[in-house]
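Researcher: I'm preparing a figure for a lab meeting and need a structural model of a single chain. I don't have an experimental structure, so a prediction will have to do for now. The sequence is pasted below. Please return the structure as tokens so I can convert it later.
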Amino acid sequence: MTGNSLGSILLKKRLITQSQLEQALRKQRQQARVYGWQLLGEILVNDRVIDRRALETALATQAQLNEIYSLQVDSEPSQIDILNVSIDNLSMHELLDQLHSGVVLTPNVDHVMKLQKDPDFLRAYALADYRVCDSQVLMYASKFLGTPFKEKVSGSDLFPRFCAFHKDNEDITVFLLGGAKGVAAQAMLNINERLNREIVIGAYSPSFGFEKNEQECLEIVEMINQSKATVLAVGVGAPKQEKWIYKYKHKLPHVKIFMAVGATLDFEAGVLKRSPKWMSNLGVEWLFRIYCDPQRLWKRYLVEDLPFFWLLLQQKFGFYTSPRFETLDRRHVPVNVKVTVNRLLRKRATTKV
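Model: Understood. Here is the structure written out token by token.
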């Protein structure tokens, strides 16, 4: 049994916390490195490639390097704040190791700007279990703030890696929700063919504006429940996908992992091209996306998202303040309906007159 599967069992039985598991796994990896070097050294000594004194000197140096590495890892923050959202400082490998249940969101600059204005989106974000950096621009921003992320973990990279990671895990089955008509179904075929396993067991492309149609949403919930999928990947764009997960999550008892994946289903179906790797690495993927869909995206990137850099400067120099949203009565207001206290008060005043 691997340390990872043992950790999963201990977590499920609530015998340890996530942080305790992470610390134990880190120590396990460090010990594996030490013993691995010792074994290699003994082989070299036995083959008379080096002598015993050279081995001892090399192992002492390696121990010092391991100690420095351990201090560096321990000093890394677990979360990094970019404006009003805390983003988990996780690598792709760490996330895949840890992800057994919960909601996974992948913030980028556009999300961060929407979070300045949309309280419902912010609430969905606040209740997510994992928020990982999906933007090279946010990577640059974290370095500018002095707390760099370990790695960019974009949703379009994470989802295929997640499926490949669980290729032989029969407990993982996926339902795809999103894309234009036929896109989710094509993505399902492509993924299953690539992995040589029916890991995706259901797919549905909703109608335009489906989130406002309660009947269709309930039919989707029933569809997902009947499939008994343990993972739901929702790709209908932000903030729609995050709000939908937040609103209907409690109606999906079989689903253990919820992933908001944006345009990933279009990429998987082959109907949309990803930007060249060099553009993504440089942080200019947005230029490629504008080129592919200028009518829809020019305003997002060139107007709505540009104030991010001014807000980032404010955060750097300590005068950024998080937006304060008016209190909403959540007992009666659906997630995707914006009703302010002032509007409610005006309505009540008019009724009294």
